[in-house]
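step: validate -> pass
step: tokenize input -> pass
step: predict -> running
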Amino acid sequence: MYPKLRSVTQDPQAQAATHPCPQCGAQLAYDAATQELTCAHCGHQQAAGTGPAAMAPREIPIAEGMAAAARGLGAPVKEIECQECGATVSVEPQAQTVTCPFCRSQKVLPREATSNLIRPESVVPFKVDKATANSAFGQWIGKLWFRPGDLKKMAQVQELGGVYIPFWTFDAQAHSRWSAEAGYHYTETETDSEGNDRQVTKTRWQHASGSRSDFYDDTIVCASKGLPETLVDRFRSWSTSELVPYQPSYLAGWAAESYVIDLPGGWTIGQQKMEASQHSRCASDVPGDTHRGLHVQSSFSNVTFKHVLLPIWIAAYRYGDKPYQFLVNGQTGEVVGLAPWSIWKITLFVLLIIAIIVLIVVLTR
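step: predict -> pass
step: emit ->
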């Protein structure tokens, strides 16, 4: 089993890579609304991504792995570790963070940053600002059925936090060989015991086999521990074509989670996703009307990876002492979330349906 790396790096050569305002000296922060670095003190704005040169995003051969990649975030950071959900988040040294952005727990502890994590190759900067994300949260809560009525009030008071979430992307050439029994439907006329003819559909089976090659570009694997995989996987609107070379300035004023699923573990998940896709593609290659006993053997070559940061707005709220999460894609505004069920509303609905059925039965007698 590969060890899980949980800390966020602090690059010793980048201690001076802060973002002071050239006009007043206050710290600049990346503004999702304008996509520029903005000074909250004097209003000065300047383009993001123009700080100290960073490595251009590139595909790294997975065989080179840890030894090939640059380390750290390229800027001084401090870490907090949540004692409830286990997430480790990096924030700027001056940030006063007392709650976990994932589960809203106040059980967070500072921890020493290390320099052994792979530096992000690229990043999708936030494009959806906080006001837009908050509005999406309220609309989502308001449209939910069979939920507690006071969730609408929670939509007005819950704080959303923008966090850069770690992901791996993998490119690979897939080679698959498959074998199966292909089924061909045909009809026969059968005569029953009373002399009546009927058409019966039957299937003729015969062996089939084949092969195919496919290229996978940027298969995405979430490396987070703070967010449940089942929730993150609901996002369908990521566009890796908008990745830009990583620069520490994009993280100015924002939190970034450390990856917990390391490179070997990420590739295991990525390979499983590709194998499932290859199984589906090979199934479509089987001739005939149906098939059974499909067996697929896949191998992968020219595997490369990138470590990227993707933007997500997170609303973590508690209901009945249980945490729930709502996510907004910081690139596209797509929303996914979890919310508690109202047992009373579901029970009343079921009783209403039963009453309607009983009434229909009575009236049709």
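step: describe -> The longest strand covers residues 160-191.
step: cleanup -> pass
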